[in-house]
Amino acid sequence: MTLADGELETAAEMASALQERDATAAELTARAIARAQAWQPVGNAFSQLWADEAMTAAAEADRTGPIERRPFAGVPIAVKDLFDVANHETSGCSAAYAGRVAARDAPIISRVREAGMVMVGKTNQHELAAGGTNLVSDCGPTRNPWDPARMTGGSSGGSASAVAVGVVPWSLGSDSGGSIRIPSSFCGTVGLKPTNGALPLGGMLPLAPSLDCPGPIAATVGDAWSLEAVLAGRDLRHPVRDWLLRRPDRPFRIGVPEPFVAEIVHEEAAAALAGAASVLATAGVDVVPLDGHGLDDARSLWTSVCYPEFAHAHPDLQHPSMRARVHPSVLDWLDRGAALSEADRERAAHRRMEFERWFRERLALVDALLVVTTPYPAPLIGQEFVELAPDLAVDVATVGPGFITCAANLAGVPAMSFPAGWSELGLPLGVSLIARAGAEETIARIGARWEAASGYRPRRPALPA
Fold first, then answer.
1. Looking at per-residue confidence, does 333 or 236 come out higher?
2. Which entry of 233, 301, 328, 414 is 20 to 30 Å from 438 by CA?
3. Is the pLDDT of residue 413 over 80?
4. Domain residues of the chain, as ranges?
5. How far apart are CA 91 and CA 93, in angstroms?
6. 193 is catalytic
């Protein structure tokens, strides 16, 4: 068959078509490769593209066909460059690790392979995940598919871009301070950061092990939840969307904390948050205000936790020959981490426990928190200041894309960003649901209610002429 734009764009749709023999894995994979090649000169989403290998895997998926425990066999997927895939380079888009070929799959990649998905390639990322813009990469910067003059956000920017343009319905990213949710917000995808420790970290280049979380980026909430289930090794319920929308034992209750980390966010981001809260209220979710004070030092605390762990995880990068191959901004993270005193690290650990308590106390009152994901829509590449409101601008270097997201990483709780609106310039606006540890299902079910009540359907940008 010939797949037209708009047909079989979600993983759920693809899985159903494959099971009914209405499409083949080879057809889906060929379209994915063609889209990747068409978009690559514009967005630079991929660090590696495996056309021949992917088509071979698709042929094998067509030969065996989907089975009960592998409902997504044959569905294409892309994976972030920091995950080991056997016989492929894992550089984390850093020249320092160029030529580092993996001998075996990371455990999480093994689960993708066991599920029968077709990996089409590796996605571009911010170098070693040490940044939230995706502008620093040995593979070159990624560019936002809705406006190539703007950033995707990072560090999983290539993964979000690949989903946003429809190369794949879902991709694998990682999130240590917002690296799944930031590009999801800027590119208009769903991004789920699981509970810290829920998914294996083996075979994954580390940023900060106590913060690092692999996770899915997808076109819909249902797809994100399905991929998270695959990665976690859980049994899948199919069709997932119907299961997520089943009536809860009692109405869900969400809290909107004011303020949350940032005292002021862009007026369009605030409007998207208010709109999402309103839609959820019409869907029968109880929406209540909460006191959000107490997290104003989230970003500085995050750096005090992340930077030392980053330096400890990459001791070889301190060698002069290696330092010369690392971007200066990434070296700054390494050096600041190495220089942080033991007393400072102990203070950060104590303050982190207070963050955990902050979330426990508020999530004892509600099922989830609803917050903006990023303080503003995607900035222009090279833009130094963003105007949040008339006569109020912030320095992007100070109030960066991950200014808000990092709080959930410090507390170790799951968080999911979903696209809840559009700016006047046609840029996606993301909001996030945050739940208690282990409650990924809760935020997926609330997110599914928002999708159903809002009539959400993924949109793809047109390829620039």
1. 333
2. 301
3. yes
4. 11-300+340-454
5. 5
6. no
